[in-house]
Amino acid sequence: MKGWLGKAKSLLILGALAFVLSGCGRDNLTALVPKGYGAEVSMNLIILTTVIMTFVLIIVFIIYAFVLVKFRKKKGDAVINPEQVEGNKTLEAVWTIIPIILVVIMAVPTVFATFHLADDSDKEDHINVNVTGNQYWWHFDYENEEISTSQDLYIPVNTKVYVHLITNDVLHSFWVPSLSGKLDVNPENVNTMYLEAYEEGVYFGKCAELCGPSHSLMDFKVVVVSEEEYEQWVADMQDFNSEEVELDAVAQEGQELFEEKACISCHATDTQNYSAGAVPVGPDLTNLGDRSRYAGYLMPTKENLVNWILDPETLKPGNLMTGNYPDVTEDEADKIAEYLLQLKPSDVTAESKEK
């Protein structure tokens, strides 16, 4: 009995711990706290299916308990062979029709929502962003604004923003849990969905398709700002020219090293470095100084940026940057980082929206 009680206590403690830990997390990285239209639709479907499955589970348990109690063998009862019942057309019809009805109740709203969220018939009246997945980063090209960014997608609040998804390499999956459901990113065809955020803030996005050793680190952020801030951000990005930034002496050396080490051959530092619609070999660095994370997941500190420049493979295994530029010393990496940190096109930043 003691061993049985010990196991029961252990299971109880583990269950309680799991219950407590299930409440941990961030409001901007969960599908259970919807902050956008797509996520709200998904949440309604989750509630619908959960209610139906819970109802079925309760009915099954009730029937199971009833049978156990009513037909259990009591002490002293004679051993009998229960009546064999088979081919009951009424019962067979009931347990066939009821599941079909329940499946239809769940399937119809799900199919409707899927087609509704993929409908892009009014895309010409809204913001359109071409999203390209790469191992292991994301690129965003704004069609009408003729600007591009990487890793941080800026959108206005309470506004439809259509994202047209394609990949440069392997399969990826675009997912911002708090704002909408996920959608596959394929190399052959463009898949379209839209984001519509209810609240300003920074929302975490993930790649939801296993795409290589650093799949779990292929993060991005959606920065939701007011309409006025969005217009200001677009204007600032359009007017930005990295050659005109007033740099201190260290940053000027870093800019020279950035060109000397051929960093600029892969990374744009403003929209003048490549034509609109073209995807750079590496992430766009135009607004790196305003970035909410480096390499998708590193906190935006100079130390992390220097470490990334020195040894990206350690921080993000399998990335395409590793070994594709000349060796740099720690001092050179520090100067390059100082230059990149001074690329701040706009006062509208992710930092101002993080909660």
Can you describe this structure?
It is a single chain. With 355 residues, this protein is of the alpha+beta class. It has 8 helices and 10 strands. The strands form 2 sheets. Strands 3-2-1-5-8 form a 5-stranded mixed beta sheet. Strands 4-10-9-6-7 form a 5-stranded mixed beta sheet. A hairpin with a 7-residue loop joins β6 (172-175) and β7. α5 packs across α8 (330-341). The mean pLDDT is 88.
Number of strands: 10
pLDDT below 50 for ≥5 consecutive residues: which ranges?
Answer: none
The CA-CA distance between the termini, in Å, is 51 Å
**What is the element string, with H for helices and E for strands?**
HHHEEEEEEEEEEHHHHH
- Sequence of strands across the biggest β-sheet: 3-2-1-5-8
- The rounded Rg comes to 28 Å
Profile the largest sheet. 5 strands, mixed
Roughly what is the average pLDDT, rounded to an integer? 88
Count of alpha/pi helices = 8
Helix share, percent:
25-40%
Strand content: 15-25%
- Tell me the structural class: alpha+beta
The backbone outline, from C-alpha atoms, is elongated
Task: Set down the secondary structure blueprint.
Elements: H1 2-21, H2 37-70, H3 89-118, E1 127-134, E2 137-142, E3 147-150, E4 152-156, E5 161-167, E6 172-175, E7 183-185, E8 191-195, E9 201-207, E10 220-225, H4 227-239, H5 249-260, H6 302-310, H7 312-315, H8 330-341
Parallel strand pairs: 1-5, 4-10
Antiparallel strand pairs: 1-2, 2-3, 5-8, 6-7, 6-9, 9-10
Helix pairs in contact: 2-3, 5-8, 6-8
